[in-house]
Amino acid sequence: MSDSRPPHPYRITVVCLGNICRSPIGEAVLRARIQEAGLADQVVVDSAGTGDWHLGQGANPRAVAVLDAAGYPNDHTARQITPEWFDGIDLVLAMDEANYADLSRLLARSGASTELRMLRSFDPDLAHLPEPHPDLVVPDPYYGTDQDFVDVLHMVEKASGGVVSHAAAARD
């Protein structure tokens, strides 16, 4: 009996503006949840930003502190997504409406068939909302407080189960 799964891992890329706050939190949480679900050999998670301001930098220290406090392993270097990436991505997750619009344009230029979703559309309490929708936004905590980073973590955690289920179903 042969294995009917696609030969490559299912690839998820979490995207925010600068790839130092929200998307590194999303990447770390989803990696941990994928690992817990026993899918680490079938699903790969990474992250990027739509902008280039922080290329090569680590995650924002407050993002790192929130991840560390919650016990999530993290090791991050900021990158920028380009149209060339999309051929290798199965699911791209936008953090806000501006990211969604930017990714939609990049995706159209790429010609790839990558699925574009807002991360919080996987939150069971918000899954009924059309994408993009203002209530699906994960707000940028960059200019905010430490609590804003904690709030981002909780939003990502709440949506993570839906993302894992979606990825597992895509692998079947």
Explain this structure to me?
The protein has 172 residues and is an alpha/beta fold. It has helices at residues 22-36, 61-70, 97-110, 146-171, and strands at residues 10-16, 43-49, 91-94, 115-118. It has a four-stranded parallel β-sheet with strand order 2-1-3-4, with helices on both faces. β3, α3 and β4 (115-118) form a beta-alpha-beta unit. The longest helix has 26 residues, at 146-171. The two termini are 15 Å apart.
Set out the fold topology:
Blueprint: E1 10-16, H1 22-36, E2 43-49, H2 61-70, E3 91-94, H3 97-110, E4 115-118, H4 146-171
Parallel strand pairs: 1-2, 1-3, 3-4
Largest sheet: 4 strands, parallel
Strand content: 5-15%
Arrangement of strands in the largest sheet: 2-1-3-4
Element pattern in H and E? EHEHEHEH
Mean pLDDT: 95
Alpha plus pi helix count: 4
Share of helical residues: 25-40%
Any low-confidence stretches, pLDDT <50, length ≥5?
none
Would you report the number of β strands? Answer: 4
Shape: globular
Rg, Cα atoms, Å: 15 Å
Helix vs. strand class: alpha/beta
Key attributes of the depicted protein:
single chain, 172 residues, alpha/beta, four-stranded parallel beta sheet, 4 helices, 13% strand
Short description:
By secondary structure, the protein is α/β, with parallel strands linked by helices.
